[in-house]
């Protein structure tokens, strides 16, 4: 892909920049800074250095031998983003954007968070780079993810509770946008997923593509071939686009797994690409869960990180162009995936990638033993112990 | 473009009189109270009305207008119903131009062309769409032009000079100047920096200028009216509705607008 194509504001019919006028200048400035940074060897060298020595990259590619035997089909491989510093893939993007903010001369960072993983990653890099940090978080998510809230505070961030709307990720983004409209001169909005107005979906995808680039190389080295299938969970879709992007021109089947909540038929879910239709929210044209009048619907999922009524615009394009397929896995199935990986491999996944694990197990069973299936294991499950215990009827 | 709106700005400009623009959210405080509130705004002295199209995620609005949107959405007041409300108000004698203000998704959901056509048929004069800059407005802009609807771009203190020219090129009736960086109703109009901001815009265009965001008192309105062609009051009108209580909304709005507009 050429540099110009990479910075195009659109992915097919999706993407763009649907923003209040006050923020137009900041987006143009960010776009210019990013274009310069991605061509600047010094910027790349600093980022690579920190990814290696601070984040702990490259993360391993692990052959899940017992899970493979249990499914009795394709060889299952895990890209271990759960082993990155702070326990999830979110830090890849947080690190990149924080370095960009420094380059822009902006001393204050704001972020939104759902599960708290992006908030923790942002608070972490802000501590390390000495940047002021405020994280917006819905009060429902604060309740579900109290451990991550405490982590952010320990790291020196201010956690701002958001009590409007559904009190989850969508509302945290609205509130972060309002902060940004007010403080745009001094503040960079460090968006945590491949969503939002141009150039954010491109920036986040590029910083997360380290996942797929490493995994591609590691598959060639360890399996001697590319995977036949790559599977990742999709909320906003940053880990999925990071895993998928380096395989887009390869003969690799790409499957995104959305949160089916209590079941897509019940209406209580977050399966945007499976059940939504195109619209404009948070600055981008993409698939949305919305009513017939264009009002945004409330979402449901056992995993706070997937609880979002929109999705990154590049995923909308991968869907409509039929390059990737998207399915929904419900709360109970995700818990099955969670338990299966924990017991078979001694790896406790976050609830978000547990959705991908469940679906990957079904797909693996349909494939031959000489085929390979790659799962993006986007984060570890420590943060979800209370939720899992509650779902299993256990009081901690 | 709306000829009614353009003539109004041209006449008042010639007379050296600034217009008073009043905002309220459709469906607030209730579906039933909306038409009486619209008529009260006109009776109180509003020259132009901005009617908010309710949306679940009003990301550029402060707490007051967010709440009004939430109440309206919870009652199920859709964009289609906004048109019905304007029809009803026109039938009861509402004369002043009405601009719809809000976010793009409900428009996109109904359809660019259908929205503009229905607006024309209902007696609406144009649109201010907060999250639809001209770069993304192609189809909707064309539909507005085809249906006698004004498309009103916003200009912010952070807008560069070259971009002001570009925004003016797509405007027809006037430019909406956002007085402060921030959400609606969150901070008071910056009357000290406003003259330089407006001068910067006037260096690029001869279009009439309306100033909004943070205008809530008669003193604000008087000061802005000396500098610009129109002053817009929004959050403070919603606050006046709240203060009057659901039964007295129309009366409360009329008294507040009479006072703040000095009419």
The helical percent of chain A reads 40-55%
Largest sheet of chain A: 6 strands, mixed
The stretches of 5 or more residues of chain A where confidence is low (pLDDT under 50) are 1-5
Judged by helices, strands and strand pairing, the structural class of chain B is alpha/beta
What portion of residues of chain A belong to β-strands? 15-25%
Total number of β-strand segments of chain A?
14
> Ends of chain B: how far apart?
28 Å
Alpha-carbon distance between the termini of chain A?
51 Å
Could you please say which CATH topology of chain B applies here? Answer: TIM Barrel
Q: Largest chain interface and its two residue counts? A: A-B, 35 and 45 residues
Structural class by helix and strand composition of chain A:
alpha/beta
Oligomeric nature of the chains: heterodimer
Q: Please state how the strands of the largest beta sheet of chain A are arranged side by side.
A: 3-4-14-9-10-13
Would you state the CATH class of chain B?
Alpha Beta
Which overall shape of chain B is indicated by the principal axes computed on the Cα atoms? globular
What is the total tally of β strands of chain B?
Answer: 9
């Amino acid at each position: 892909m050429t540099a110009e194509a990479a910075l195009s504001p659109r992915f097919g019919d999706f993407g763009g920049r649907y923003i209040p006028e006050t923020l137009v200048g900041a987006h143009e400035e960010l776009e210019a800074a990013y274009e310069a940074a991605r061509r600047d060897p010094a910027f790349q060298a600093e980022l690579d250095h920190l990814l290696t020595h601070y984040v702990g990259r490259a993360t391993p590619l692990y052959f899940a031998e017992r899970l493979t035997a249990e499914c009795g089909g394709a060889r299952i491989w895990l890209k271990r983003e759960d082993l990155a510093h702070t326990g999830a893939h979110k830090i890849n993007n947080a690190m990149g954007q924080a370095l960009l903010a420094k380059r822009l001369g902006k001393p204050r960072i704001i972020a939104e968070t759902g599960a708290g993983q992006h908030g923790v990653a942002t608070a972490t890099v802000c501590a390390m780079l000495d940047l002021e940090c405020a994280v917006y978080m819905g009060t429902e998510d604060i309740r579900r993810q109290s451990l991550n809230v405490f982590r952010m505070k320990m790291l020196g961030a201010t956690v701002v509770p958001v009590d409007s709307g559904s009190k989850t990720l969508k509302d945290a983004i609205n509130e972060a946008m309002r902060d940004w409209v007010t403080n745009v001169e001094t503040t960079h909005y460090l968006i945590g997923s491949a969503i939002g107005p141009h150039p954010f979906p491109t920036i986040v995808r590029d910083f997360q593509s380290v996942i797929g680039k490493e995994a591609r190389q590691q598959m060639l080295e360890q399996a001697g071939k590319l995977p036949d299938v790559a599977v990742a969970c999709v909320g906003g879709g940053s880990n999925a686009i990071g895993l998928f992007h380096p395989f887009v021109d390869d003969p690799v089947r790409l499957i995104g797994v959305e949160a089916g909540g209590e079941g897509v038929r019940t209406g209580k879910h977050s399966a945007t690409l499976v059940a939504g239709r195109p619209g404009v929210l948070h600055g981008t044209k993409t698939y949305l869960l919305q009513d017939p009048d264009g009002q945004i619907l409330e979402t449901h999922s056992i995993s706070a990180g997937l609880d979002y009524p929109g999705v990154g615009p590049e995923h909308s394009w991968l869907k409509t162009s039929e390059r990737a397929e998207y399915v929904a896995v419900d709360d109970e199935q995700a818990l099955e995936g969670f338990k299966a990986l924990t017991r078979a491999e001694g790896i406790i996944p976050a609830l978000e990638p547990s959705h991908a694990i469940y679906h990957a197990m079904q797909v693996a069973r349909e494939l031959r033993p000489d085929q390979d299936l790659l799962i993006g294991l986007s984060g570890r499950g420590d943060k979800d112990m209370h939720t899992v215990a509650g779902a299993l009827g256990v009081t901690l | 473009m709306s000829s009614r709106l353009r003539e109004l700005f041209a006449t008042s400009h010639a007379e050296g009189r600034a217009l008073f623009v009043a905002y309220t959210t459709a469906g607030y405080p209730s579906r039933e109270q909306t038409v009486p509130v619209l008529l009260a705004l006109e009776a109180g002295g509003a020259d132009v009305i901005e009617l908010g199209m309710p949306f679940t995620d009003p990301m550029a609005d402060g707490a007051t207008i967010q709440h009004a949107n939430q109440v309206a959405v919870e009652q199920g007041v859709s964009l289609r119903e906004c048109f019905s409300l304007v029809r009803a108000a026109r039938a009861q004698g509402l004369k002043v131009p009405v601009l719809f203000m809000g976010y793009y998704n409900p428009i996109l959901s109904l359809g660019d062309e259908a929205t503009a056509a229905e607006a024309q048929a209902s007696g609406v004069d144009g649109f201010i769409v907060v999250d639809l800059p001209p770069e993304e407005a192609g189809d909707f802009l064309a539909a507005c032009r085809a249906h006698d609807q004004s498309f009103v771009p916003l200009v912010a203190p952070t807008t560069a000079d070259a971009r002001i020219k570009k925004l003016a090129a797509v405007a027809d009736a006037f430019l909406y100047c956002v007085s402060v960086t921030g959400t609606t109703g969150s901070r008071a109009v910056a009357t000290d920096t406003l003259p330089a901001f407006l001068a910067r815009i006037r260096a690029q265009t001869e279009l009439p200028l309306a100033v909004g965001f943070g205008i809530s008192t008669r003193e604000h309105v008087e000061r802005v009216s000396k500098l610009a062609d129109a002053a817009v009051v929004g959050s403070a009108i919603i606050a006046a509705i709240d203060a009057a209580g659901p039964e007295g909304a129309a009366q409360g709005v009329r008294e507040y607008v009479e006072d703040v507009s000095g009419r």
